[in-house]
Amino acid sequence: MIIARIFPSESSSYKSLSVFFRKLDGFMKLKPLSWFAVWILMTSGTSAQQSNLDRYIYWDMSLAGVGLITLLIITIVMTFIIRKEKFSFISNDLNTNFILNHTIVGLVLFMTGWGWLNWLNGDLLISLKSFFPYLLTYLSLLFIYQIDLDSIPEKGYTPGKGLIVLSLLLVLVSVFIGIAFDDPVVSTAAAVIAPFYLIAIVFPEHKRHIERARIYPVFIAAMFVSVRLPWLLIPLGVL
Predict the structure, then answer these.
(1) Per-residue model confidence as pLDDT tens digits over 201-214
(2) I want to staple 133 with a disulfide (CB 3.0 to 4.6 A). Which of 119, 166, 177, 236 is the partner?
(3) Rounded Cα distance, 20 and 75, in Å
(4) Can you give the three-state secondary structure of the chain, one letter per residue?
(5) Is residue 113 within 8 Å of 49, Cβ to Cβ?
(6) Where are the domains of the chain?
(7) Under 8 Å CB-to-CB from 230, ≥6 apart: which residues?
(8) What span, in angstroms and rounded, lies between the C-alpha atoms of 33 and 147?
(9) Residue 237's CB: how many other CB atoms inside 10 A?
């Protein structure tokens, strides 16, 4: 009602906004929200690789140029793949192939961030070990997105509880593995994410808890990676 009063349907401002939002519809067809996962997975690899060199490295802009160019290339490639429906973050059939596909894509993105030359020059085992807790955290969030919010009532939901419990277990394991591997980024991020899953399990009065368990963990993961790689905030801020 307020917007209708500010921009009457017969005004030129309303027509200009209509044209703008029609153009925005075209942009949304690129599925830009999927870019968050792509960016976080790739920069997680860079963060882990830098931590392998210097455990106390933070707020490092030295790789900003290469990192942003790589992010742009990866975003274009992944957008093309997703537009061709060769890959999706949501599936009606959660099976082994779906999980395996995401594991492979996640590994490729992580290794791209780590640096393929570093990987080929002897970092194979170290990078695979470092990837494991990030994979668990990623899968925990991926499972949450497989819950069909339209199929459950506003209050007193029961569908999806099993997936939420599994996500909680995965993220808790990620905390302990991250601590064991001396990776404060993934261990702390997973520890902050875990309560969102726990609340969705303990207080099932409203499906809004599931919505929060979807949205906030993405933001949390991005912020913790940005502590080491602040240049990630540039594309995040633009999007």
Answers:
(1) 888 767 788 888 88
(2) 177
(3) 24
(4) CHHHHHCCCCCHHHHHHHHHHHHHHHHHCCCHHHHHHHHHHHHHHHHHHHHHHCCCCCCCCCCHHHHHHHHHHHHHHHHHHHHCCCCCCCCCCCCHHHHHHHHHHHHHHHHHHHCHHHHHHHHHHHHHHHHHHHHHHHHHHHHHCCCCHHHCCCCCCCCCHHHHHHHHHHHHHHHHHHHHCCCHHHHHHHHHHHHHHHHHHHCCCCCHHHHHHHHHHHHHHHHHHHHHCHHHHHHHHHC
(5) yes
(6) 28-238
(7) 59, 60, 61
(8) 17
(9) 7
Six token digits for residue 155: 């209050």
Residues 137 and 221: beta-carbon distance below 8 Å: yes
Tell me the average pLDDT of the chain: 83
3-state secondary structure 114-179: HCHHHHHHHHHHHHHHHHHHHHHHHHHHHHHCCCCHHHCCCCCCCCCHHHHHHHHHHHHHHHHHHH
- Number of residues in the chain: 239
| Residue whose pair of structure tokens reads 């075209």 in the numeric block | 26
**57-61, 63-67, 77-81, 148-152: segment of lowest average pLDDT:** 148-152
